[in-house]
Amino acid sequence: MIPIENFLILSSLLFAMGLYGVLARRSAILILMSIELMLAAVSINFIAFATYLDGEAFSGLVFALFVITVAAAEVGLALGIVLRLFRERRTAYVDAADSLKW
Amino acid sequence: MIPDEFGRVVILLGVALAFPALPLLVSYLLYLFHIRPERPDPIKHETYECGVIAEGGSWGQFNARYYLFALGFVIFDVEVVFLYPWAVIHADLAATALVKAAIFIGILAFGLAYAWKRGALEWR
Amino acid sequence: MTDLLGNDLNLQYELLGPEIALVITAALVLFADAFRRELKIGQSAIPAISILGLVVALLLSLLWIDENKDFARLVTIDNFTTFFRVLFIAVTVVVIIGSHEYIERRVSHLGEFYSLLLLSTVGAMLMAGARDLLTAYLAIEVMSFSLYILVSLAKSDTRSGEASLKYVLLGGVASAMLLYGLSFLYGVGGSTQYTEIAAALSDGTSTLELPLLLGLALIIAGLGFKASAVPFHMWTPDAYEGAPIPITAYLSATSKAATFALLLRWFAGPLLPAIDSWQWMISVLAVLTMVIGNLVALQQSNIKRLLAYSSIGQVGFMLMAIVTISDQTGSALLLHLSGYIITNLAVFMGVIAFYNRTGREEIVAFRGLAQTNPYLALVITAGLFSLAGMPLLAGFLTKFILFQSVVSGGYTWLVVTALLASTVSLYYYLQVIRQMYMYQPEGDASRWRLSPTGYLATGAMLVGVVWVGVYAAPFYTAADRAIAPLFT
Predict the structure, then answer these.
(1) Full domain range(s) for residue C396
(2) Using a CB-CB distance cutoff of 8 angstroms, which residues of chain B are in contact with residue A79?
(3) Which residues contact A5 (CB under 8 A, 6 or more apart)?
């Protein structure tokens, strides 16, 4: 049996990569892809915990299914908004979205 | 002996790497021993060697309309995730499970009908 | 019917009556809007259908007063849920009535606007009722996704799309962090059910200290974003400024209250056994939020941004109640939330009426409003004074009870900070009031009147502000009864 730590390390690496991408990337599309990485880490965690700790109940596996669908919906929604902004500004870079400042 | 979980992953990795590497290696060996002739041609360096000649670079921009259709596809595609578990065990469920799945699909169909009515499915 | 573990599931669909009614109404609204020409109905039929659906949902939620049932171990229907259902429905009704004129003129895609408003109300209601992490997560996303789109619906305003983009990207990151935290909570608690997590945590937290701590930090960061607590508040002023004003009002009321409903459910339920691990995190968050929110508000020139920072400051006050969580602070928080929502809606309904007339939202544009429209100036003044905590208005009484309960919870230093921050807030609220009363109007100084719906919404909220301020007994009883199921 592979120890559960391996899965947790994998997921935390994925999560950290996603978080880094969110902070470092300036293109809205790449930020969205980084968010997807973070959500993939979440799914790995849920499936690992479901298999190791919670053998008879499926709540962790079901959670992973819902995370996948909600992530797809989220990307769809965000891309729609990016497209709208692209039509107005001809760019998908978040630096250009600067008319709102504190 | 059956290898443990990680052993299987390593075997899979090896097979996966061998698949593209092996033909290249064979081709190179045939060339080394002068069995295969060498006739360079610029056409052989095309992205797709046979079929339509590619236009523009691979970093060219796509029309934004493609993304809208791709989005529509992805959303409906992912909803199927919920139908698989249902399909696997629906024989054991009460008859109301069928009704519930129908409601689920009905909601999706409503969304599709709405997008249709709003003209989101037209190539404009 | 039973689930895979053999638990009996209660599938009484009438328990979810209000939510089902609102979803059906949302679909009807979309349908009616898409086929408006074929059905030969006017534009104002759409808000009418929405209000009708909301009233039905209100009546259906009143059926369950003093009940304590659950739907399929996923949603609890108790007084807490009923309290928030009624609150959210009322907010949506007020927003729809008060912004009728604004929406017809300045919002694109009317059908989508109303149906998304209804759907986000459904999400908020389920956030208050959830008793399973998965249900809670889905409810959060139903509310947030609707809001992401609603923020982007301001017609011919480029700030709107930009605000929405920032909101959706930061919101996505926040939900990913929240989810990652939830996955650790699931690992530690071994279940997604609130009750079972609470049982598991009170058994053996010590052996799993690290994942629990990590999970808690991530959960608090994610929820801090949704509640716009400093340092996770960056999206708030931008989203508030770029959104159509009715949506700004709605964001400041429903999305905030729903997040606090969830915080109460979680921190008084599954996370209560781990109180030593999260109490200090929330108190740091509370101090940062009330200090920075109120200080940055001082230098705002746009009324929507000013109210955004003022609402951030208010979140700091409310977080104090989570730090010292008990039935006493819980009920004080519910009371303060209702008072704050009524007050904030009074201000926003006033700002919407003003914007309909002038199309401006800078603070200096309010110059001389006391002369051109004394009634509207009175409404906005009452609201701002109530936000600052003046006696005889809602804000004073609810804030007093909240602060008092936190003191008796043993966190006097938090309340001292809150009082200082509150004093700062008085300054910027008075700045707006000064513009209205101490200056001559610029340009056109003729008197003007509100639309009938504008009078209805502002009048109702003005009455509410004074009513809570002088006779809060019914609200107090309601809050007490709503919080009781959480602490039994």
Answers:
(1) 13-487
(2) 67, 71
(3) none
Cβ-based neighbours of C435, under 8 Å, separated by 6 or more: C363, C364, C366, C367, C369
Chain C residues in contact with B117 by the CB 8 A cut-off are 34-35
Determine the Cα–Cα distance for residues C365 and C303; give it in Å rounded to an integer. Answer: 10
Q: What is the pTM of this model?
A: 0.91
Provide the CATH topology of domain A7-91: Helix Hairpins (1.10.287)
Provide the shortest C-alpha distance from residue A21 to chain B (in Å).
Answer: 21
Q: For the ranges A93-97, C194-198, C233-237, which has the lowest average pLDDT?
A: A93-97
User: How many residues comprise chain B?
Assistant: 124
Q: How far apart are CA C428 and CA A25, in angstroms?
A: 37
Counts for chain B of helices (H) and strands (E), in that order: 3, 0
What is the CB neighbour count within 10 angstroms for residue B111? 16
B85 to chain C, any CB pair closer than 8 A? The answer is no
Q: C108, C148, C183: best mutation site toward chain A, by most A Cβ within 10 Å?
A: C183
Domain layout of chain B by residue ranges: 5-45, 64-117
Give residue C76's pLDDT.
94
pLDDT in tens, C401-447: 999 999 999 999 999 999 999 999 999 999 999 999 999 888 777 88
**Is C327 contained in some domain?**
yes
pLDDT in tens, C59-101: 999 999 998 999 989 999 999 999 999 999 999 999 999 888 8
Asked if ipTM goes beyond 0.95, one says no
Distance (Å, whole) CA C96 – CA C120: 14
Q: C162 at the A interface (CB within 8 A)?
A: yes
Could you give the count of Cα atoms lying within 13 Å of C101 in the half-sphere of its Cβ?
A: 19
Nearest to C287 by CA among C424, C423, C413: C413
